[in-house]
Write a structure and sequence with these properties.
Blueprint lengths: L23 H5 L5 E5 L20 H13 L4 E3 L23 H9 L6 E7 L7 H15 L3 E6 L4 H6 L7 H20 L4 E4 L4 E5 L11 E5 L3 H10 L2 E3 L8 H21 L5 E4 L1 E5 L3 H13 L3 H13 L10 H4 L5 E5 L1 H13 L4 E4 L4 H18 L6
Parallel strand pairs: 1-2, 1-12, 2-3, 3-4, 4-7, 7-8, 8-9, 9-12, 10-11
Antiparallel strand pairs: 5-6
Helix pairs in contact: 2-13, 4-6, 6-7, 7-8, 8-12, 12-13
InterPro entries: Luciferase-like_dom, Luciferase-like_sf, SsuD_RutA_monooxygenase
Keywords: Flavoprotein, FMN, Monooxygenase, Oxidoreductase
GO molecular function: monooxygenase activity; oxidoreductase activity, acting on paired donors, with incorporation or reduction of molecular oxygen
């Protein structure tokens, strides 16, 4: 395995936008618990089930969800990036065959929104990306959104996706070495006041310059990780780190495993002199009573598209990612990194316990997004404020 690429010598640049008063990220981090929405930009959303619902992958639906979340005071939105063949993960619903590109989607949302953070998920090692492309595009979106845009960096963890781009899968740790160099180039291009010429192991540039300048030093940087290499990358670069439960989606098991997992991430950040904030993705199934919520959950599971669930599980198992290894097949029918099922009071209690386990925020998914999000705003959000998890 190739050794890690040497880090570029960077100009004495900018702190994280989290540390700059007045930046959108600095402002949302005043919240005791960040609230995010994981947009369903893919058909079938997050649950390969045939239970009737209105969840829709199309842009107009996701735009309405984003505006709905912004009106409720949510802090950020983003969606996943994926490349699948015809039929997606298969089954009756052809799970995730249709999907919007999340970079283009969040760019379009920039013109419709005014406060919420917009994070673009981009698989930076696929296709023709050069750091200069993304430095320019990102600075432009930062300008359009007044500092609300960010990059969720993904390196790609599935060989079949790499083959779509005519290349073999890159080894796990080398992908992070490449991501390290890519992000060093981005940071240099966003921070350099003069033309930049630099040669790295994977990318080179000569007399490159990016304008407009990002408004708060640089855009927001995010990554998802569960591996030592990913944690090292996060420690050096990321403002927000998306974590998953090493023990699967069942909430009690997750709560047992998360503290040590997050402590390791925080230790990696501390070694770099940085404070990392973590997000986790709960699937929220909430009804006025626990009985009603359990019935809703059980109906989703009973209506699972078994062929799609099996294919999705097989795809997850084939990845060299370490983030979802504890997740069981039947948990895939519902979705979410952890599953929070119960009354509004029980949902708030679960969030309090996730906070105590080290999670700084929750990136929510729902089965039937629009009505479930509306009920969350009506029944859960006031209780979150009463519990001290949200202010304002």
């Amino acid at each position: 395995m190739p050794s890690a690429a040497p880090r570029l010598a960077l100009p004495p640049v900018f702190a994280s936008p989290a540390d700059i008063p007045g930046s959108p990220l600095h402002e949302v981090l005043k919240q005791p618990l960040l609230l995010g929405l994981f947009l369903p930009v893919q058909s079938g959303g997050w649950s390969p089930s045939t239970l009737p619902r209105g969840t829709d992958w199309q842009f107009d639906y996701n735009a309405r969800l984003t505006l709905q979340a912004e009106a409720l005071g949510f802090d950020l939105v983003f969606g996943l990036a994926q490349w699948l063949p015809k039929g997606g993960h298969g089954g009756q619903i052809r799970y995730r065959e249709e999907s919007l590109d999340p970079f283009v989607t969040t760019a379009a949302l920039g013109a419709l929104t005014s406060r919420i953070l917009l994070i673009s998920t981009i698989q930076i090692l696929y296709g023709p990306w050069h750091p200069l492309h993304l430095a320019k595009f990102g600075a432009t979106l930062d300008h359009i959104t007044d500092g609300r845009w960010g990059l969720n960096m993904v390196t790609g963890n599935l060989r079949t996706q790499a083959l779509m781009f005519g290349r073999e899968q890159i080894a796990h740790d080398e992908r992070y070495a490449m991501a390290e160099e890519f992000t060093d180039f981005l940071t240099a291009l966003w921070g350099e006041d003069e033309n930049l010429s630099r040669a790295g192991r994977y990318w080179q540039t000569h007399d490159a310059y990016v304008s407009p300048r990002p408004r708060y030093g640089r855009p927001i940087l995010v990554n998802a990780t569960g591996s030592p290499a990913g944690m090292r990358y996060a420690a050096r670069h990321s403002d927000l780190v998306f974590v998953t439960s090493p023990a699967g989606a069942e909430i009690e098991a997750a709560l047992q495993a998360l503290p040590a997992h997050i402590a390791a991430l925080r230790q990696a950040g501390a070694a770099e002199g940085r404070a990392l904030r973590t997000l986790i993705n709960p699937m929220v199934i909430c009804r006025p009573t626990e009985k009603e919520a359990r019935e809703y959950h059980d109906a989703i599971v009973a209506a699972q598209d078994r062929q799609a669930v099996d294919a999705f599980q097989a795809s997850s198992t084939a990845r060299d990612s370490q983030a979802h290894r504890g997740h069981q097949r039947d948990q895939r029918a519902v979705g979410g990194n952890v599953q929070v099922v119960g009354s509004p009071e029980q949902v708030v209690d679960a969030f309090l316990r996730l906070k105590a386990a080290g999670c700084d925020g929750v990136q929510l998914t729902f089965y039937d997004f629009a009505p479930d999000l509306a009920y969350f705003g009506e029944a859960v959000l006031p209780l979150l404020k009463q519990a001290g998890l949200r202010i304002g």
